[in-house]
Amino acid sequence: MTLSDRTKKLKSSPTLELAAKGRKLKAEGKDVISLAVGEPDWDSFTVAKTEAIESIQKGFTKYVPANGIEELRKAIADTTKKDLGLDYSPDQVTVTTGGKFSIFACLQVLLNKGDEVLIPTPYWVSYPDMTELAEGKPVFVPSTEKNNFKITAADLESKITRNSKLFILNSPSNPTGAMYTKEELKSLADILKRHPQLLVLSDDIYNKLVFDKSGLAPHLLHVAPELKDRVIMINGASKTYAMTGWRIGWAIGPQEIISAMTKYQSQSVSCAASFVQRATFKAIVEGDKELKIVQQKLLERKDFAVAEIKNVQDVSCFNPDGAFYLWINITKCLNKKYEGKAINDSRDFSYTLLDEQNVIAVPGAEFGMEGYIRLSFAIESLRMTEAFRRMNTFILNLK
Ligand SMILES: Cc1ncc(COP(=O)(O)O)c(C=O)c1O
User: Fold this and answer.
1) Residue-wise pLDDT tens digits, 302-352
2) Separation of 332 CA from ligand 1 center, angstroms?
3) Which residues contact 38 (CB under 8 A, 6 or more apart)?
4) Ligand 1 within 6 A of CB of 290
5) Is 158 exposed, middle or buried (0-12, 13-18, 19+ CB in 10 A)?
6) Phi/psi of residue 168, each to 5°?
7) 360 has which bridge partners?
8) Is the dihedral angle over the CA atoms 393, 24, 247, 49 positive or is it negative?
9) What is the 353 CA–ligand 1 centroid distance (Å)?
10) How far is residue 123 CA from its own chain's centroid?
11) Which of 16, 56, 172, 238 has a Cα-to-Cα distance from 39 of 20 to 30 A?
């Protein structure tokens, strides 16, 4: 076999696998409804689209610095000042091809073989695989439904060893939409202060898609600004400005780490697309009006989805604080049969639901927690109602 050991271990994205199956059924003429997508179904922000077109027409289409254009890095530093009250220079920002590459590069530049990365479960699917690709060891910190899928200070501390290097915090979370309160963050910060070797990767990708009036998720650095030199923040244009296909993300944090990430990017992808950086700059400085509309729409969608899911038998749903997912408890539907086929876990549930009712939902097992599925509510309400109706029919047939 010619492939490297590292590559042989690499799994393909489970959500992409489900999507491929869904596409095949669609091609066969089936009316497939996907509740699996991790992106908004509304359009990218107008200010971004206009700026991208103008930039292309003006010829702003060549290589730019590996860490991104100055005006964008300055806008990111300014927004961070506004959101967190902390000063960062534009040199402490690096712009990447999507937030995903920021996380990837961050793990690559920080981890040595065997370094442990503390990952609360359920987690975003890519954290463990990216950790392993950097030769690190994922150490899972389980949360419970009783605790609204958030880990406690004691949970965190119980998993810290002398090999712990990094803690990944994602609030609001994909897949649950759970968001840590300032008090909860403070108690996590107290633990972090006792373990000075531990760095934090704060994945803030959903921090503006929240359902309270503030429009901004509470942050670890709100409650513990003294941890500033140990926290790398990741964010991007994908979710906030509905720009998933444009591939822009960024990291902001300690200079040494950010510079190393830039070096990593310069030797791999060179830089993020120039005109897309201009467009993202515009979205950050002029996108507030559109963002308010999106936040309101998202809240309405969330309330609608949480109300509608009550029509589905034998499932219960966590009421999310942010992002655009419903995390559904399906334990009452397990260890049953669908026309003779065993439904013992979330994968059996999801794949049979797709085969029988043409509805795509992501199994909780992919996020490291059995007994749940993740549904996206970034979908038009009539389709959502129809998907839930089909799910109910499916569940009523479980014996
Ligand atoms: C929790 C989380 N982090 C990071 C990302 C990366 O997003 P992007 O690479 O599109 O910026 C995603 C996308 O699904 C996500 O859900």
Assistant:
1) 999 999 999 999 999 999 999 999 999 999 999 999 999 999 999 999 999
2) 31
3) 15, 174, 244, 376
4) no
5) exposed
6) -100, 120
7) 34
8) negative
9) 26
10) 9
11) 56
Residues 216, 206 contacting (CB under 8 angstroms): no
- Tell me: the pLDDT tens digits for 262-291? 999 999 999 999 999 999 999 999 999 999
- Please report the atom of ligand 1 found closest to the CA of residue 244: 10
Question: Which ligand 1 atom minimizes the distance to the CA of 124?
Answer: 1
Q: What are phi and psi of 235, to 5 degrees?
A: -155, -175
Specify the residue for token string 């308010």.
292
What tokens were used for 388? 């839930």
What are residue 91's phi and psi, to 5 degrees?
-75, -10
Per-residue model confidence (pLDDT) at position 176? 98
Kindly give the distance from the C-alpha atom of residue 234 to the centroid of ligand 1, in angstroms, as a whole number.
Answer: 9
Ligand 1: nearest atom to the Cα of 103: 4
**Residue 350 half-sphere exposure toward CB, CA atoms < 13 A:** 28
**Integer CA distances (angstroms), 321 to 68, 138, 175, 191, 220, in order:** 32, 26, 12, 24, 17
Give the residue among 398, 383, 364, 375 at the shortest CA–CA distance from 145.
364
Q: How confident is the model at residue 15 (pLDDT cuts 50, 70, 90)?
A: confident
Ligand 1 near 99 CB (within 6 A) = yes
